[in-house]
Amino acid sequence: xxxxxxxxxxxxxxxxxxxxxxxxxxxxxxxxxxxxxxxxxxxxxxxxxxxxxxxxxxxxxxxxxxxxxxxxxxxxxxxxxxxxxxxxxxxxxxxxxxxxxxxxxxxxxxxxxxxxxxxxxxxxxxxxxxxxxxxxxxxxxxxxxxxxxxxxxxxxxxxxxxxxxxxxxxxxxxxxxxxxxxxxxxxxxxxxxxxxxxxxxxxxxxxxxxxxxxxxxxxxxxxxxxxxxxxxxxxxxxxxxxxxxxxxxxxxxxxxxxxxxxxxxxxxxxxxxxxxxxxxxxxxxxxxxxxxxxxxxxxxxxxxxxxxxxxxxxxxxxxxxxxxxxxxxxxxxxxxxxxxxxxxxxxxxxxxxxxxxxxxxxxxxxxxxxxxxxxxxxxxxxxxxxxxxxxxxxxxxxxxxxxxxxxxxxxxxxxxxxxxxxxxxxxxxxxxxxxxxxxxxxxxxxxxxxxxxxxxxxxxxxxxxxxxxxxxxxxxxxxxxxxxxxxxxxxxxxxxxxxxxxxxxxxxxxxxxxxxxxxxxxxxxxxxx
Length: 529
Ligand SMILES: Nc1nc2c(ncn2[C@@H]2O[C@H](COP(=O)(O)OP(=O)(O)OP(=O)(O)O)[C@@H](O)[C@H]2O)c(=O)[nH]1
Fold this sequence. Notes:
The chain is 70% helix and 7% strand. It is of the alpha+beta class.
């Protein structure tokens, strides 16, 4: 940007200083002519009109020479290194060696006036890099940082305002102010984050305390314990979204099932209550009818005692027999009814026990395979639904692997069914220890397991399965102090976009079958169709 003309009232030394500053700013070599031009410009002296060739030459730069000499002398009087420059300039003026004067001046400018200005930067115009950096910083503040601070609108708005200010801040003072604000903002964010972390920690502690107390209060409702334990386990480690989703789903499932069971249970309880009432009713009516019978018999004995003739006695006896038969029939019917009611009560009681036992294990049973602790088919369906939706949404690869233990029947036959069960447990344990935490293993059938590998391309899934095979050869399955080697054959398939579970499982099953056919203890990749 051109400098504004200086007011003509300045004294010559000021004008000389300004002239040198402008020479440096404009990066013009400080020759006497250049210096004079700028000096005149500042002092407001009009440029001389060109004289005709024949006109006498003006006296050679006399005024400029004086000023250059003055400047050199003044410089000599300054402390430090500048004085040496003054002396060099003075020598040059004395012998009128303007080349030497220009060199010394140029070095002076380079060394002292341009110090602190980064290379590539020119006055009044920024380099491309600076413009780019300024833009990046502005965006980082106004968009990225501000969007990370939704919980503190004040800090977010300061980040936005700083972003806007960075765009237009020029000059040292303005940038200094930006730096101060930026420092303050960072400090506030640090404080704020500390607060939020502390609050979260406090809430978690409170929640844990509550859960412990609730858990202690549960005597009869022990079916709740499974749910509480799941939540306790979740909050004991670092909380991640997947784990949260898992527990939420599992809880929803459990609560739904429990709702159904509780409903059944209360139905059965009502039935038992009704039957007990009936039972007591019957007992009452038996007592009543036998009571009547005794009363009547008492009446008959009175009539028998007072009977005058045989005909009268016969009549009484007929009535006695008839009453006795009636009482007997009633007693028998009542006994049958009571036995039936008793049976019903017993059945209802055992049904209640069964339902209660089911309810008690519900939390663990809903999604887990009891033998291996892996997911069961229902759990697998849930996770498949979740992971395939995630893969479609994020456009990330999702692989599945189907594992089938080799020669498992032989193992069962040789070492027994219990050894077979333990071998399945061992496999599940090695799989869990070898795979990433986001991978999921489910028991698919007898000795078949399905592993889901989110965010994994097919090559990596194959490598994972071969790594698992290696791990199994390193971690033997021990049975009665005997090391048994378990191997498996596996199919691996990459889920196609929007492919459903049935189609994917059919493909991976074919691949696993191929692995069995081609010699077992192998991994085969499924074809796309
Ligand atoms: N111990 C135990 N055995 C099981 C379980 N589920 C299935 N099995 C047995 O696993 C065996 C599977 O036998 P096959 O299908 O012939 O398979 P395999 O012997 O492994 O033969 P290949 O798969 O061809 O290597 C059967 O004997 C089943 O009884 C279980 O939960 N525990």
